[in-house]
């Protein structure tokens, strides 16, 4: 009986923590026109809104900004701040997903 109660409490805690993690809000840096669409720039970590907007505009024009790397998103589209991610940019330490790097932002639709 105690084991099943502990399991139920643990499962409820895991669901609660997962909901809290998904509810995180990131700074919205306003909108730009990217590939003809209104796109919200959202900073994930390690940069300013001004830098993120500048890098995103240059990415849209096909002018890479070192050391930043940017890539278009592909299905299944993840959501940030309730909007679908259209592209991600990042640099620094982290994995192959640029959105997980130490300096990162996304463009959301």
The helix-strand sequence is HEEHEEEE
Number of strands: 6
Cα distance spanning the termini: 49 Å
Continuous helix count: 2
- Overall 3D shape: globular
Strand content is 25-35%
Helix content: 25-40%
Largest sheet data: 6 strands, antiparallel
Mean pLDDT level = 84
Q: What is the rounded Rg?
A: 17 Å
Q: What structural category do the secondary elements indicate?
A: alpha+beta
Low-confidence stretches: 3-22
What does this protein structure show overall?
By secondary structure, this protein is α+β, with helices and mostly antiparallel strands. It is 30% helix and 34% strand. It contains two helices and six strands. The protein has helices at residues 2-22, 49-60, and strands at 28-34, 37-45, 69-72, 79-80, 83-91, 103-108. Strands 1, 2, 3, 4, 5 and 6 form a six-stranded antiparallel beta sheet that branches. It is globular. Mean pLDDT is 84; it is low at 3-22.
């Amino acid at each position: 009986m105690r084991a099943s109660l502990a399991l139920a409490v643990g499962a409820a805690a895991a669901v609660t923590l997962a909901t809290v993690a998904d509810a995180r809000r990131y700074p919205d840096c306003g909108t730009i026109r990217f590939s003809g669409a209104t796109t919200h720039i959202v900073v994930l970590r390690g940069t300013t809104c001004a830098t993120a907007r500048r890098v995103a505009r240059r990415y849209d024009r096909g002018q890479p900004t070192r050391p930043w790397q940017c890539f278009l998103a592909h299905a299944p589209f993840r959501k940030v701040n309730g909007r679908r991610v259209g592209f991600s940019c990042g640099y620094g330490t982290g994995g192959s997903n640029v959105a997980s790097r130490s300096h990162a932002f996304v463009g959301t639709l």
